[in-house]
């Protein structure tokens, strides 16, 4: 029973990791941009929510009303004004720019908030759970986060396959040059994709900020988990990120059950094994 | 030439570093005209298309479409204006079906809704001989089908000026003949055509006028059969020394 409980916790933890990974996967899938600042942006979202909560006295979930549009606009403008200028055949320039963005975000947050740990408080719901039988308890908050991850994927899938914007995303992702000749303004498409990626980042940042503490330098670890989930799931595949997140979450939970010190290490080992055996992940959508 | 020009290139220059690709190109194409372009590899033919479609910018000179300068327009704006193009190496949206490829071009290139575009797409797929492949992912098409899809997609953008870049290259004689018939039918709809091709007989069968590019310059311009008979063209392009 203890093991079933562990596996369930791992599964639900996978929901968080897939939320981390979706934004990274979306931006990579549409414009082949590896966003090194991804983890720092998640932390920036947590801090933005923290500021809104402090300033307006609302709860973290209500803060999303302000955080989500702010992050969409931020992503749209960063892509339009900065990253679009670096995109081309070479993947390195945009990567270096996002690396710079990562350093700027970390140091700016450190300057304003110091290195103290912070957390977003949601109240008793954070620790509430319900029981399945006598031995298994399922946390309501982790379950809700998992459900939000699935809802986000379903929404993005619908956006991709049932809307005009989604058709622009898919055409641009396939061949940006040909898409331009079909009348598609690919620079605007990139900006909207980054804006949507940022919305997912903001959701992940706020939900994670409730679950665990954060400080200005917790971004790189979040980037690593996101990156691992994306690679395990397969580059560019949105459903693959859920799978990758779950594999990572399960690996960490199982490792933690064997020995708490092995928790993070087990996730990395599984990632390395997948990288060795299936370098393109389980459900790759991007070919090179 | 009674019809007004749809495209005018005025003293167009383009160089990549020290390599000159276009030098002082002056060219006027009338509405409804069919123009063929030949020239040896590296003569600057595809670059000329890149300049017209907006994929490259000229170093100097002006490009006029319908009498308006389009120099500062982006490729997607030129597409919406009525300039359609196919690529030498077909660039289909490989993960989309054939129908989705054409629909995407129709919706974004001509600014119609999906519902309005669907009937037109079916008509274009009929005309380009792709009706049997509508649900196939474009990445799985044969070379001929890919070339046809390039044509279908550029037609779906409702072009008034159609740029075809070596669309018959790599096809068998029978396939080429089928493509020629399709393009001749197209010309009857009034679309202006500029066709770069190495298969000279395909051009002669289709276009009204032929130009020869060499070293970034137009060295000959006239009726297709006369141009091909020109001693200079035979020497430069066909490698035949005049007697």
Short characterization:
The complex is a heterodimer of chains A (288) and B (243). With 288 residues, chain A is mainly alpha-helical.
Question: Please, could you describe this protein's structure?
Answer:
- With 288 residues, chain A is mainly alpha-helical.
- Chain A has one domain: Orthogonal Bundle (ABC transporter involved in vitamin B12 uptake, BtuC), CATH 1.10.3470.
- Chain A is 73% helix and 3% strand.
- Chain A has 11 helices and 2 strands.
- Chain A has helices at 2-31, 38-56, 60-81, 92-113, 140-162, 164-174, 176-181, 186-211, 219-233, 238-258, 263-277; strands spanning 129-132, 136-139.
- Chain A has a two-stranded antiparallel sheet with strand order 1-2.
- The model of chain A has no long low-confidence stretch (mean pLDDT 92).
- Chain B has a 6-stranded mixed β-sheet with strand order 6-7-8-3-9-10, with helices on both faces. Chain B has a 4-stranded antiparallel β-sheet with strand order 2-1-4-5, covered by helices on one side.
- Chain B is 36% helix and 26% strand.
- Chain B folds into 2 domains: 1-82 and 159-243, 3-Layer(aba) Sandwich (Rossmann fold), CATH 3.40.50; 93-158, no CATH class.
- The model of chain B has no long low-confidence stretch (mean pLDDT 90).
- Chain B contains 9 helices and 10 strands.
- Chain B is globular, with a radius of gyration of 18 Å.
- By secondary structure, chain B is α/β, with parallel strands linked by helices.
- The longest helix of chain B is centred in the C-terminal third of the chain and has 15 residues, at 173-187.
- At the A-B interface, helix 6 and helix 7 of A face helix 2, helix 3 and helix 5 of B.
- Chain A: The chain crosses the membrane at residues 12-34, 41-58, 64-83, 95-116, 136-160, 189-210, 230-250, 262-283.
- Chain A: Keywords: Amino-acid transport, Cell membrane, Membrane, Transmembrane, Transmembrane helix, Transport.
């Amino acid at each position: 029973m203890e093991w079933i409980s562990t596996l369930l916790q791992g599964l639900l933890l996978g929901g968080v990791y897939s939320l981390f990974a979706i934004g990274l996967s979306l931006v990579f899938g549409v414009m082949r941009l590896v966003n090194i600042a991804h983890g720092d942006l998640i932390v920036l979202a947590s801090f933005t929510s923290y500021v809104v909560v402090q300033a307006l006295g609302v709860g973290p979930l209500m803060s999303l009303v302000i955080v989500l549009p702010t992050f969409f606009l931020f992503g749209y403008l960063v892509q339009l004004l900065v990253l679009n200028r670096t995109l081309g055949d070479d993947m390195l320039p945009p990567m270096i720019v996002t690396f710079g963005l990562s350093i700027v975000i970390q140091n700016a947050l450190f300057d304003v908030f110091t290195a103290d740990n912070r957390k977003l408080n949601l109240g008793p719901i954070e620790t509430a759970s319900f029981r399945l039988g006598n031995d298994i308890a399922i946390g309501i908050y982790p379950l809700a986060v998992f459900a939000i991850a699935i809802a986000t994927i379903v929404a993005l899938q619908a956006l991709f396959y049932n809307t005009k914007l989604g058709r622009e995303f898919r055409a641009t992702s396939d061949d940006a040059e040909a898409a331009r000749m079909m009348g598609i303004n690919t620079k605007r498409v990139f900006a909207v994709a980054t804006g949507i990626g940022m919305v997912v980042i903001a959701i992940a940042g706020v939900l994670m900020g409730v679950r665990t503490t954060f400080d200005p330098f917790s971004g790189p670890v979040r980037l690593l988990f996101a990156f691992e989930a994306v690679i395990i799931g397969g580059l560019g595949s949105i459903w693959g990120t859920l799978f990758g997140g779950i594999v990572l979450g399960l690996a960490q939970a199982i490792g933690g059950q064997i020995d708490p010190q092995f928790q993070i290490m087990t996730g990395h080992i599984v990632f390395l094994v997948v990288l060795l055996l299936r370098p393109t992940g389980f459900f790759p959508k991007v070919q090179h | 030439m009674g019809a007004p020009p749809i495209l005018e290139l005025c003293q167009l220059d383009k160089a990549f570093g020290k390599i000159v690709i276009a030098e002082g190109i002056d060219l006027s194409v009338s509405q409804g005209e069919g123009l063929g372009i030949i020239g040896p590899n590296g003569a600057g033919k595809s670059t000329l298309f890149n300049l017209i479609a907006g994929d490259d910018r000229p170093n100097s000179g002006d490009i006029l479409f319908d009498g308006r300068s389009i120099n500062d327009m982006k490729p997607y704006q030129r597409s919406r204006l009525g300039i359609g193009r196919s690529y030498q190496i077909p660039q289909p949206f490989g993960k989309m079906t054939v129908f989705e490829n054409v629909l995407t071009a129709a919706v974004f290139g001509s600014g119609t809704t999906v519902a309005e575009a669907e009937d037109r797409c079916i008509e274009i797929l009929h005309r380009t001989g792709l009706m049997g492949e509508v649900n196939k992912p474009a990445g799985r098409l044969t070379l001929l089908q890919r070339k046809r899809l390039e044509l279908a997609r550029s037609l779906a953008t409702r072009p008034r000026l159609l740029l075809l870049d070596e669309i018959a290259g790599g096809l068998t004689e029978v396939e080429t003949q089928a493509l020629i018939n399709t393009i001749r039918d197209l010309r009857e709809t009034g679309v202006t055509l500029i066709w770069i091709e190495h298969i000279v007989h395909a051009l002669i069968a289709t276009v009204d006028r032929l130009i020869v590019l060499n070293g970034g310059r137009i060295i000959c311009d006239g009726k297709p059969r006369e141009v091909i008979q020109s001693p200079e063209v035979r020497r430069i392009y066909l490698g035949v020394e005049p007697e």
